[in-house]
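Form 12-C: Joint structure prediction
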Amino acid sequence: MKIASWNVNSVKARLPRVTEWLADARPDVALLQETKCLNEGFPALELEDMGYNLALHGQKSYNGVAILSRHPLEDIQIGLPGYGDDEQCRYIEATVNTVRVACIYLPNGNPAPGPKFEYKLEWMGHLKARVADLLKTEEPLVFGGDYNICPTDEDVYDPGGWQQDALCRPESRSVFRAIVNLGLTDALRQFKTGPGIYTFWDYQAGAWQKDHGLRIDHLLLSPQAADRLTDAGVDRAVRGREKASDHVPVWCELDF
DNA sequence: ATGGTTGTGTTACAA
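Section 2 - Result
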């Protein structure tokens, strides 16, 4: 089973790129972030015609997450449990073919410090609690999404220039590390090691052309999922296409 | 270079 995550930066503006990628990469499950539309505005028919079932949690203009699955979606959970008063649509969870899958759009947190950074850290605290709860089930789990966290200096083209940014600050990295250390495996790093593995390049200042990227999209696996991990990668070429998102898909293959 | 780009949706805000 192939599971991918992609911040599409508007599913409506990106629809031609999304459908061509789905046809090419053929993921069984696709976790999309920044859909930027209400559920009634989501291009459901086009994606259902490609064989996908949908679970949606959208809002107007900002944020928004979706799970696309070739298998039936069971026990859909809208929003992050334990954070019922979160007004932003950043989390959705469902069971697919015995695997519990979470789609995460973690707050960016800039400018830091400030209220947006506090919100990011608060959100991460709730995510950590949810991960700890689900790990108790000892089921295969995949926590995928745009974490807006660059885990180490190896994951950014210019660590010095980014060390004050909410994506790289020690407080952000510390909570991310604490979540991973509950017992999760960074799927991509099992197959792609060393510097220069990126999933995001800013639209500005020719970042893509200069390969000024960051690795901020992740697939974190529970032990029962990691035991079945056979491959992982980044669909980097997607960034070079016309009307591209600023993020590219990251994917993993699980033997289920 | 106090710059640069994209998307939403009205002209500022988020990334």
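Section 3 - Comments
Residues 9-10, 12-13, 34, 36-37, 60-62, 108, 110, 116, 148, 202-207, 243, 245-246 of chain A lie near DNA strand B (CB under 10 Å from a C1'). The CA atoms of residues 151 and 176 of chain A lie 7 Å apart.
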